[in-house]
Amino acid sequence: MAIVIDSSAKRLTLHTANTSYQMMVGEYGYLFHLYYGDSIGDGDCSYLLYKQERSLCSSPFCAGEDRAFTLDTAPQEYSAGGAGDTRLPCIIAEFPNGGRALDLHYFSHELLAEKPALKGLPSLQQGEKTCQTLEITLKDSDSEVYVILQYTVFEEDDCIARSCRVENRTGAPLRLEAALSACLEREAEEDLDLISFWGRHTMERNVERRRVSHGKIVVDSARGTSSAQQSPFVILCDHHATEDAGRCWGLNFVYSGNFAASAERSQLGSVRVTMGINPETFSWKLEDGESFQAPEVILSYSGCGLSRLSSNYHRILRENMCRGAFKDCRRPVLINNWEATYFDFNTDKLVRIAETASKLGVELLVMDDGWFGKRDSDWSGLGDWTVNEKKLPGGMQALCSKINALGMKLGVWFEPEMVSEDSDLFRQHPEWVLRIEGRGYSRNRYQLVLDMSRQDVREHLYQQISKVLSSANIEYVKWDMNRPLSEVWSQLLPADRQGEVSHRYTLGVYELMDRLTTDFPHILFEGCSSGGNRYDAGLLYYMPQIWCSDNTDAIERLEIQYGTSFGFPMSALGAHVSACPNHQTGRTTPLFTRGVVAMAGTFGYELDLNTLTEEEKEQVKEQIAAYKKHYDTINKGEYYRLTDPTRNRELCAWEFVSRDKKKALLFAVGTHVRANVAMPVIRMKGLDAGKQYRLTCQADHPLTKKDVGAKDGVYSGAVLMNAGIRTPMLKGDWPAFCVELEEVENA
Ligand code: GLA
User: Fold this and answer.
1) What crossing angle do the helices spanning 591-598 and 554-564 adopt, rounded to 10°?
2) Which range of residues forms the domain containing residue 75?
3) Does 631 reside within a domain?
4) Model confidence, pTM
5) 282-330 residue pLDDT tens
6) Number of folded domains in the chain?
7) Is 528 in the pocket of ligand 1 (CB under 6 A)?
8) Distance, CA of 700 to CA of 504 (rounded, Å)
9) For residue 497, how far is its CA from the centre of ligand 1 (angstroms)?
10) Last residue of a domain, which of 295, 320, 345?
């Protein structure tokens, strides 16, 4: 049983294949967190609860003269602000008299045989899996405010989907100043680290690991998107946890707007981690009879290191978050014209790029920014989604026929949420943008943000975009979003509801995405926000892949993709081979290396293939053929980080193993080739120790001496995982090699 309820002991336990999560209704009816970690079977952790009088810690009213009972030190399952627990609150509610205190007690619980959908929000789908859900209702002691905690157990995946709903039955409005989704409590004696993923444009998701010391750590976004600056995914882990050892708890937020993940070590040393919508940019007026649904957090635990934790997330996001026709089928290898032409293109140029691409095996041409309105630079045109016939004579249909005639699909770029000041849309509807009446507004890339909380704006966008999508055989859409929100204010909402706009914006974006992806199910949608500025589990509900970064430099990508891999599957990671010298860094890397790096994701090209030599074109052909051959291993297999590129400055290696463990691929890039070095040994992971594998090694750099290491031959999984393989002697700038393993039966 995934969920076990011991009514007499008032204990509630959630079980996954390898983990247990336990809560109990304790003294005075409060819901306490007892345990989350490796399976404990039918174990009872209630003995861990204790109470002791502490100076400067208050006792709740219901405890009367019991001075030893305090919420300020208790492990709470969902902490409420204002009534004695002064640590991180999950919920802050203000009553009409201005009072801000909630005193939440267990009220009831219900067991559901499936996972309910979260209205208007992305969330894990149970699909073919059997899922049990536990809903625990808490009630405020002095009012009719109810908080329903929701837990759905994905047993085989070692994941728990957690969220909560607040219901106001007080007869008067209630103002929510915070309504977070999840809370995790840890014991006092534990030496724990928080791993988060910080970044900036073209340098997203760098791994940052810090000790959870006294006080608070806040990782958040107030930019309107989940952001490049911080990712809505954090890991709490043992200070000594590594890829293969130690306890790790992940919180992956299924939300694309402002978020906050906080960790606090309290006066007694216990640790609380919370995650939810960022309270800094949130306030919600909940009328009597209304409820507020907080987004979902996917909790996962691994008792054997970070690798397993990532694998849990990869699997569940791939299988239960991504939806639609492209969830499982092989997605096309694409070529995007952005870095090939920027805004300077027309039908002829695109067709020339496509002609060469199609001959080499590319299957989809993506026409990026610049095909619409007055859009010859980033100064104008956003919002006017009508084809610029000067660039594309005969319109979309004419271009599409030409591309289709080459045997290729056509894809189109949109940035639906934006409008340029110089656009017909802005001239017609200046009231449709986020701005505060009577104030100036901030500019970024000379574009403004449409007020996606407005239904009329969303309807207009739906009409415009669906018209384009129906006008020709368009089979892919890149959905971009290139600036943060500012002056967040909506003309349609009263003053006391302006704090809702950021969240309503995100809900509005989700609604439009849902409508378009539902009505155009044959179209593959790829998310993008200046690259990885809205890279989160929520977006994957609508689009199975996201452009990972505007940085296409293969060497820079090593760290970006490494960081991304902790919380997100490689099948979601948009990666392209681009031209050299690279447009972001000026670095020149071998084409082979660029292919190897882009193959750790949804593979494509972003350059004019006509500029390549015949020899290079042959190489492109081989890369595409290899990617197609290994598609399932890369996109559906297990992914392993073999080195940490932030520590190992010489070699970056990673590996894919097919689900049946019959095939594996090891990719490595020499990031700092040095003279007179030892050739390191890399131990492979995840193979079947008893299987025999045929090893073939491919290295392309003319100076690399392949014959020195990784000798082609047949080896057992046990040998490859324990003794490992020796790397070839890498020479030159940024060399790479690839090792392919295939099971040899009856060897
Ligand atoms: C963003 C995207 C790029 C490209 C440009 C076009 O920066 O991330 O890939 O589409 O916009 O303006």
Assistant:
1) 10
2) 3-320
3) yes
4) 0.98
5) 999 999 999 999 999 999 999 999 999 999 999 999 999 999 999 999 9
6) 2
7) yes
8) 51
9) 33
10) 320
